[in-house]
Each structure stands twice: as C-alpha cells, then as structure tokens.
Design goal:
By secondary structure, this protein is an alpha/beta fold. Helix content is about 35%, strand content about 20%. The structure holds S-adenosyl-L-homocysteine.
Amino acid sequence: MIPESNITNIMELTKDQLISWLKDHDIETYRAKQIMKWIYFRQADDFNIMTDIKKEIRQLLSLNFTIDRLEKKQVETSQDGSRKYLFKLFDEQCIESVLIPEKNYYTLCISSQVGCAQGCRFCLTAKGGFVRNLTKGEILAQVRDIMNGLDDPEKLKNIVMMGMGEPLANYKNVVGAINTITDAECGLSFSNNKVTLSTAGLAPKLPDLNQDANVNLAISLNATDNKTRDMLMPINKKYPLEILLDACRKYRLPPRQSIMFEYILLKDINDSYDNANHLAELLRSIKAKINLIPFNEYEGSEFRQPEEDVINNFREILRKNNYIVITRRSKGRDISAACGQLRVRAAISNNA
Ligand code: SAH
C-alpha cells in the first residue's frame, strides 16, 4: 500500500524499476546508480544536492519522487543499552525497530509487517493481530534512518528481520528491501552473511527465497513434534514439521553456512531431556546451528521460562551432539523491546 499521490517515495522502486522509469523519460540508465548512491551511501534527503546529476533531471526527479524518512515518534533506551525506535507511518500506524549493542558493533532488528497474522501462542506481537504489510520503502527506511542517527554508522553490522511480522508473508516487499540492503554497488552495502531473515515456517516460500535473495535463514522451530508445534504455532497445521524440514534440507547454502534454528524454551512444554535428544535427531541431516531462547515472560503470559539448570542441560545435550548452540538472552526487557514484545506499546501510543 503506497499513499495515493502522483509523487512516489523513490525508495519504493527497485533498481530495475528506477532504470525503466529513467528510460521512459529518455534519461541515461547509469543515472540510477548515481541516484541510489546519493540516497543510500550519502543519506540524501533532497534531489537538489545530487550535484553530479544535471539540473533538469534533478527537477524532473523532484516533481515525481520524494525521498522519505519515517517519523521517529519515540526512542527509548534500555538499561542494557538496546534502543527501541517507535516509527509512525503515513497512515498513523506504528512499527518498532530495536538496535542492540554487541561488543564492538550493533545489530538492528527490523519489522516486516504492522502486527502479525501467524498467531503464535507465546508471542505478544501476535496478540495485537495483523494490520498490514510494510512497503519496501518502509522496511528499508528503518535501516537507513537509524544508520543516519548513529555517530559511527559503520558500527551497524548485522540486520535481523525478527521484529514485528512474518517476513515471508510479505514476500515481494521483503525481498526487494533485502536486495537493496545487500546491494554493495548502490544500496546499503551490508554483507549477505550479516543479514538474517527469520520465518515461522512458510515452507513453500523457501525455494523462492533461495532463488531471489542471498541472506542467512533462521527458522523459528520451537518444538520437536507436530502436536506441540500445532499448539504453539498455527502455521504448523498447514506446513507440518516434515514439510518444513524437508524444505530446509533442500535449501542450498553457501559453503560454511548453516540454517539457524530458533527454539524458545518453555517450561514443561518443550524443555525436557527427550526434547533435546529429539531436536538433535530431527536436525541431523541439515546443516544447522541452534539458537536457544529462554522464554521471555510478560504480564499475563501462560508460559514460563525454565530453570537455569534445565536451560544449561538442554544446551549441553545439543553440544554433545556436535551442534553449535547459542543461548540468546532477550535484551531490552525493561522497554518491552525483547522478542515477541514489540507492538503492544506501539498500539497504546497509537491510541493515545
Ligand atoms: N515471524 C518471524 C519473525 C519474528 S522473529 C518468526 O517467527 O521467525 C521473533 C522471534 O522471537 C521468533 O523466533 C519467536 O519464536 C521469538 N519469540 C516470540 N515471542 C517470544 C517470547 N515471548 N520469548 C522469547 N522468544 C520469543
């Protein structure tokens, strides 16, 4: 959905679309690269500063396009240093992005939809329901705008699409945005292996993604049997574990890369000794890494986080089975920026 107007945010266009617009207007196609460099390398807000482009072309561009930023409604900083950005969109909807400081760099978690339609039972974002897909420009702007506000934009190294929404349910816009984020010639120049797309498991979209984009893949697995996964993640009824894991097995990976399987640890639901062994077994024939996420409790949540020793034992079983395992502690809990907690406050401030 793009606002109704003859003037388009130029960031909505793919490179090919920009090239064909230039052709239609009898302008040399190499200008596309120049324009995009100004927007993404130099953070230009105005066509007039694009001094290596003829004045008449700049004027024509200004008549037809804008270079939009998102309205930064609020920025909150957590005690652990993570920063949550609340952005207001043209239709008054709000989304959130979270900047997470690591040792020497930042990771940015971005949203792909306003709300989410997947209805995962443990996820607070899901409880707010689905509103709409983000446009390509809105996805890109989260990265471009936040980079622009950093003292050292080079420090932003990782992008994870793990904010609000299911990226593969907004396929075209997400792939368009990813391809500009990773375009080294005239996009935002992120390394392909520093951008991660996380999905709840829209299995039929995986072969397309494999073909259309080159980024890390993360799968929110969260259970080792269909009964438990059906209960936690309704998408599993459509694409059960066998189908999802088969699509993962067929996913072509660059050398030395693997698929990241995210597994929320929920007390007495999926955290047993048997579950750990079963998980090790299930992923045996896939090049897999495992990311354990101790459930992040929130007010009214029906699930609990397992005890520390249960979490450690679970991890050790997987390590003994030769998996690389990371335990991810949610950051930004005091500002509701942790996993699954986005949107709720956005909804509140939206109604304010
Ligand atoms: N829809 C995509 C992208 C969102 S990623 C997906 O499902 O992968 C959000 C990640 O946070 C998912 O791995 C999800 O399983 C996890 N998550 C959601 N709510 C959580 C909670 N309360 N505690 C810990 N992790 C949670």
